[in-house]
Amino acid sequence: MKKIIVSIIAFSLFSASCSDFIEKEQRGTQTLENYFQTVQECENYTNELTKRLLLPNDWWTLVAPRVTNEMSTDDAWMGNTGQDSGAHRPASQYLITPDNMGDMNSIYTAHYYTIQSANIGLERMASSPLTDAQKNQYMGESLFVRAYCYYELVNLFGGVPLYTKSLGTGDLTLERSSAADVYAQIETDLKDSAAKLESAPVNKDGRINKWAAYALLARVSLFQEKWAEAKTYSNKVITEGPFALEADFLNIWNVNNHNGIESILEAQSSSVQNRDLGSALPTLAGARGEDKKNFPSNDAADVLDGWGWCMPTSDLENAYLSENDVIRRRSTITKWGEAAYGDEVLNPTHKFSLNDNKSGRICRKYYIPIATRRSLDKKDGHLPLNIPLIRLAEMYLTRAEANYHLGGDALTDINVIRARVKLDPKTGISGPTLLKQIYKERRLELAFEGLRLFDIRREKDPTTGRPVIESLMGPNGTFVKYNLSSTDPYETTNLREPQDKGINFDPSKHLLWPIPQLEIDLSGNLIKQNPGY
Fold first, then answer.
1. Which residues contact 191 (CB under 8 A, 6 or more apart)?
2. Which of 93, 307, 346, 410 has the most CB atoms lying inside 10 A of its own CB?
3. Boundaries of each RagB/SusD domain copy (predicted)?
4. In terms of Cα–Cα distance, which of 308, 310, 314, 350 is closest to 449?
């Protein structure tokens, strides 16, 4: 008797246990017993895993919660003041509860679907009739996918249920593992991934390779304060990997420079018009209320008109201004009426609806240039902007922070990053001043690239020894006080998003998000809630 599966991936979403499916006599259908028999089948499965991890065009599943995490920091407002913010508000305003998670529900669920699918693939590919080299390629990529899912889960929710074998519906009795155990599994998977991908070709088409595994190892080592390991892995990527810093910072997010020389891993996109392969991020976080009359061409083809979520704060802009950091500021933030950096001729005064925009600013990294807009018959879901997930500059900053704690040379690496954007080197600083500068360089360099929330939760204020987020948020937080006394002409005149952003932050619980109550209920209360919720 054979169990029908319409799609291998769909099959894994519902369960990994063959016995959980209705049995029907079928011939010529794919099943778990006869799939994973060819290179193409294994590649298709692995490609789908990678797509499901990155999901550049599936805005509600992973893109939206990742953007909401940005909104929970001092870098971004929710931004859109003309539409319901119910999906973003719980986390971004620190009102989140286990029963009111907003879009944090979806990232928890989506990652466990992917973990389950990765487990199935790893088990089946291990016994497939492929060569060892072929198995290593696809199993190495699958191990990275599983590790990345757990990396996000442990940073969002703390210790979570941990499993590395496919489970059936009768096996859903897992309790939470400790964060240390989850990290240990992440490290094991990444080391195994790197080993399996050692001989795999390192190409630039977006496939996962050993350098992505080493780079993520550097990141998770840093997050655990494993300074020696963070230095080892970041240094390995810098000195042995085939990467170099882009000469022009703006080129990192260039629609015509996918998988550039600095990119270690990017979420892929395409503007192919008969397929839905584009990135959703430029729409989700694009300027809302564009009008053709505001472009020199007066042509509707130049209008993208995004949804207006995740708008930069004036506090972030001030951080750039304090360093006279013109290049990174203009590459990260476009203020209403300013020329779009790098697109000055066709968009010399980028304007959008201030009634619908909290801050009068948009994220330049997510911007689609006018020439590209004109080439598209379809724009929603067809935007060709790759999303960098790991790039070389982060490795320099990781090595700098690790060196600081190990007593090594931290200044050289941050000055390499500063030199790229034509800033003078920092000299003669040490101790807490140097550590704060490293933190600041991470903020200025990596804004809107998915790291700010994780950073301010894990970084320690050298004065108090407490997480940096505690000094920023809450009734006495410097970011909250800044906003309440701000005179910014945009933020303070559009109060449909409250000006007291971050005031509800509670350090006793908000260093993690709660576990969704639904997951606790489904576990029969075996899964225990995070403290304070």
1. 213, 217
2. 410
3. 348-533
4. 310
Is the distance from CB of 57 to CB of 269 less than 8 angstroms? yes
Q: Where are the beta strands (DSSP E) in 263-365?
A: 263-267, 311-312, 333-335, 361-363
Q: Which two tokens stand for residue 378?
A: 């379809």
**pLDDT band for position 17 (cuts 50, 70, 90):** very low
pLDDT greater than 80 at residue 444: yes
d(Cα 184, Cα 344) in Å, to the nearest integer?
48
List the alpha helices (DSSP H) in 447-491. 452-458, 468-472, 478-485
Cross-strand bridge partners of residue 312: 76
- Residue 115: pLDDT over 90: yes
Distances (CA, A) of 499 to 70, 102, 361, 413, 510: 17, 21, 15, 37, 20
pLDDT at 6 over 60: no
User: Mean pLDDT, to the nearest integer, of 130-146?
Assistant: 95
Residue 173, pLDDT score:
73
Tokens of 499: 């000006």
How buried is residue 165: exposed, middle or buried, by Cβ count under 10 Å (0-12/13-18/19+)?
A: exposed
3-state percent helix, strand, coil for the chain, nearest multiple of 5 = 45, 5, 45
The single-letter code of the amino acid at 227 is: W
Element (H, E) at 467: none
Cα 151 → chain centroid: 11
Phi/psi of residue 97, nearest 5 degrees: -135, 165
